[in-house]
C-alpha cells in the first residue's frame, strides 16, 4: 500500500514538471500548444494567457562585485542617466549614436539618431534601460581609453567593471518583468535588446550578440509589430503599434563599413604559418590581395539590398489592404532572390580567386549581415506553420557565423598586440 502511495506521488510530481508553455498552462499543469503570442488553449477556454518565460534569462551573468567608480572620468558623461533630466540634447543623441557600434570606423555615422533619441527618452523613466545605457557608455569609454588590444583585457579598468555591473543589473531586471506582455514591457525589452547588441559588440562577444539579435527579432515577430497574413488573403493589423523597430536598427548597424582587416598568412621562424599578421596592403602579393578586394564591391551590392529592405519594411508597417500586401509579397520574394544571387556571386568570386583559405573578417561580417537580412525578410508578412522551421535553420546559421566572427576578431586582436608590442586599437582606417 505504501509503495502505491509513493508511486502515485511520483506520478503527480512528474505531471507538475512542465518546462515549456505559457505560465497559465504550467500553473494548470496541462500541455500548452505554445502558440505565440497567446496560447490557443487558453483563448479557447476563455482564460487569460499569462505569457512565456523571458528569453533573456539565457544571458544572466555571474554576480559582479561592486567597484568604486567615483574616480572615473568620461567624455560621455559616464554617470548613470538620472530620471530628473527633462530634455535630451543633440549632443546626448550624437554620443549615444557613436556608442552603438564598434564594427565600424569610429568616425562613421550610423544614422541611428532617432533610435538614440528613443532610448534616451525611455531611460528617463525605465531603470532597466538606464542601466543598459550606463553599461554601454562605460564599456565604450574603456574601449576608447584602453584600446582593444590583448593588454586591455588583462588590465580591466574600474570603468569596465562598472559597465559589467550595470549590464548585469539591466539583464536581471528585465528578465524579472518581461513575462508581462504590455506595450511598455515589450518596448523596454526591445530597446534593451538594441543596447545589449551594442554592448556585446563592444565586448567582442559576437556569439552573445547574435543571440540578442535572434531573440529580439523573435519578440518582434511573435508579438506582431507589423501587419501580417494570418491565412490566404487575410491581412491582420499589427498587435502592438509604436514599438521600437529593432530590425531597422540592426540593418543600419550592419550596413556601416567594417573596420577590421586581416592580411594573409605569413611564415614564422619555425616555418609554420600564422593565420593573421599585420602586413600593409601595399606589401601583400597581388594574388593574396584579390580576395580582399571583393569586400568593398560585395558590400556595395549588399548595402543596396539592405536599403531596399528598409524601404520594404516601411511599406509593410503602413499596409492597409490585401491588394497592396500581395504586391509587397512579390517585392519580398524579389529581395530574397537578390540575397540568394548575392551569396552565389560571393561564392563564385571566392572560387575564382584561388584555393580556399581564411576569409577576411570584413567578408565574415558581410555573411552575418546577409543572414540578418534574410531572417528579417522571411518573417515579414508571414505567420505560416513552415516559417518557424525556416527561421530556426537560418538562426542556427547566423549563430555559427557569429561564433566564427568572434574567433576571427579575437585572433586579429591577439596578433595585432603581438606585432605592435604595445596596447592600441587594431583598426584600419
From TrEMBL:
<keyword id="KW-0862">Zinc</keyword>
<keyword id="KW-0804">Transcription</keyword>
<dbReference type="InterPro" id="IPR052360">
    <property type="entry name" value="Transcr_Regulatory_Proteins"/>
</dbReference>
<keyword id="KW-0539">Nucleus</keyword>
<feature type="domain" description="Zn(2)-C6 fungal-type">
    <location>
        <begin position="21"/>
        <end position="49"/>
    </location>
</feature>
<keyword id="KW-0805">Transcription regulation</keyword>
<keyword id="KW-0238">DNA-binding</keyword>
<keyword id="KW-0479">Metal-binding</keyword>
<protein>
    <recommendedName>
        <fullName>Zn(2)-C6 fungal-type domain-containing protein</fullName>
    </recommendedName>
</protein>
<dbReference type="Pfam" id="PF00172">
    <property type="entry name" value="Zn_clus"/>
</dbReference>
<dbReference type="InterPro" id="IPR036864">
    <property type="entry name" value="Zn2-C6_fun-type_DNA-bd_sf"/>
</dbReference>
<dbReference type="GO" id="GO:0000981">
    <property type="term" value="F:DNA-binding transcription factor activity, RNA polymerase II-specific"/>
</dbReference>
<dbReference type="InterPro" id="IPR001138">
    <property type="entry name" value="Zn2Cys6_DnaBD"/>
</dbReference>
<dbReference type="GO" id="GO:0003677">
    <property type="term" value="F:DNA binding"/>
</dbReference>
<dbReference type="GO" id="GO:0008270">
    <property type="term" value="F:zinc ion binding"/>
</dbReference>
